């Protein structure tokens, strides 16, 4: 994950979220879940505070 090594957490989180939602929308539950788990891992590594936007994404 090039973005992770460059500390580009915001961009990486956006990519993972969009990828996960697209896959889940197209009934690709396993792959969508994999990206969702990566989203959470990157969120933890980024150590950014919990925002309303992140809560909305997690609750979707």
UniProtKB/TrEMBL annotation:
Highest taxon above the source species: Eukaryota
Pfam family, one: GET4
GO terms for cellular component: BAT3 complex
Any one biological process term the GO annotation gives: protein insertion into ER membrane
Family, per entry: Belongs to the GET4 family.
Protein name per the record: Uncharacterized protein
Native source organism of the sequence: Darwinula stevensoni
């Amino acid at each position: 994950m090039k973005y992770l090594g460059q500390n580009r957490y915001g961009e990486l989180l956006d990519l993972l979220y969009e990828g996960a939602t697209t896959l889940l929308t197209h009934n690709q539950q396993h792959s969508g879940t994999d990206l969702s788990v990566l989203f959470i891992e990157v969120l933890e590594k980024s150590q950014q505070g919990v925002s309303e936007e992140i809560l909305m994404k997690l609750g979707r």
